[in-house]
Design goal:
five-stranded parallel beta sheet; globular; alpha/beta; 385 residues
Length: 385
């Protein structure tokens, strides 16, 4: 026996195949489904393919029975509420666009699950994420892109710690999605054809604004759309309805398509602009986590991803104090969005990443100098967020 591993099982095909592969490799496998949402009726009304409901529990249980491994349901509602839902609504209320899945991975699917796994004597935890885990010659653990680029999930896992990675197994990262489904069929798993979950699991019908107002018990009032010079361009529905880069759904009749450049919660304003105004030459990021190295040397060349489906762009990094980095893109990038993750790669390997504080507008040399100058990053003004 190669050790014991707790597999986080969502009832989907990826985590089910992860459990199958680990059992075939000689591990003692324990299936755990994480109960994370707050109200029972949410489970009962779960959408097709969701990961948070009663169907997920039942599908995971059926898979475990087929594999002949134990299955448990563990309550992680408190951890999920504190680290994912509260964070999600607070970020939107502050005019930023959060990454709830990244927060869930870091604080719930790894930190909380690993704590429980160690508590029952397990050696490792595992999930069905499409990523490869490697230990480098310098002794540090890092993630390597999945063999299938269209399913690679390393972006959403950039902030896992060295301690977490040392106790993690990721067997699915060596396979394409098609190969995973074929393995599920071969193993006789009942979820082989189950569709993937697409939307945020705790927001019904993708209605972020409705969820936030209901959860906070607060109405976000209409305010002004303005341009960079402060000229009023119209009225918005409330800041939580918008994100940087958004073009559709503004409800305005303008001479040319406009984009959201900035959200100002203090003034209850949404700043709009045209054309090249949406592009940025750099980004300031904080809340850093490094994987393949403990830190960076100024000027290091990387590939930077500014959102999950971003292909990545060549950039150079410059540390600004102990917990901030300025990322200078070699080519301007569209819609650098405060609150989103920015992840840095060296080839296929994750160097690290952080949370975007603001973008530096194209042609704005003053902001770039402030971001790169004396490290007083709290004083940076005038970016995209």
């Amino acid at each position: 026996m190669r050790g014991s591993v707790v597999v986080g099982m969502s009832g989907g095909v990826d985590s089910s195949v992860a459990a199958y592969l680990l059992k075939e490799a000689g591990y003692e496998v324990i299936g755990v489904t994480m109960q994370i949402w707050q109200e029972r009726d949410v489970f009962e009304d779960e959408r097709e393919g969701g990961c948070c409901g009663l169907r997920a529990v039942e599908d995971a249980r059926r898979v475990c029975m087929e594999l002949g491994i134990p299955h448990y349901v563990m309550n992680f509602r408190r951890e999920f509420k504190q680290n994912v839902i509260d964070y999600f609504v607070q970020e939107y209320a502050a005019g930023r666009t959060p990454n709830p899945c990244i927060a869930c991975n870091r604080h719930v699917k790894w930190e909380a699950l690993l704590h429980r796994a160690i508590g029952i004597g397990a050696d490792y935890i595992a999930t069905g994420h499409y990523a490869r885990l490697e230990r480098l010659g310098n002794g540090r653990y890092t993630l390597r892109a999945s063999v299938t680029a269209d399913k690679d999930q390393t972006y959403a896992l950039y902030n896992l710690t060295q301690e977490q990675l040392a106790r993690t197994l990721m067997p699915v990262g060596e396979y394409t999605k098609q190969a995973v489904r074929e393995l599920a069929h071969q193993a006789g798993l009942p979820v082989a054809n189950k569709p993937d979950s697409q939307e945020i699991c705790f927001v019904e019908d993708n209605d972020y604004a409705g969820f936030i107002e209901g959860y906070m018990g607060k109405e976000f009032l209409p305010g002004n759309f303005v341009d960079r010079q402060g000229n009023v361009m119209g009225r918005h529905k409330g800041i939580i309805h918008y994100t940087v880069g958004q073009r559709k759904g503004l409800g305005l009749s303008l001479k040319e398509p406009a984009f959201v450049l900035e959200i100002r919660p203090q003034e209850n304003e949404v700043v709009l602009g045209y054309g090249r105004e949406i592009f940025a030459k750099g980004a300031l990021a904080k809340q850093l986590n490094f994987m393949s190295q403990e830190g960076i040397q100024d000027g290091i060349l990387v590939t930077a991803k500014i959102r999950y489906n971003h292909k990545g762009a060549p950039a150079r990094l410059y540390m600004r104090g102990e917990d901030a980095v300025y990322c200078e893109f070699l080519q301007e990038q569209r819609a650098v969005t405060p609150g989103q993750a920015i992840v840095f790669y060296e080839g296929e390997y994750v160097l690290g990443g952080g949370t975007i504080v603001q973008g530096v507008p194209a042609g704005n040399e003053g902001d770039k100098k402030m971001c790169m100058g004396d490290g007083k990053t709290d004083d940076v003004k005038g970016g995209l967020g």
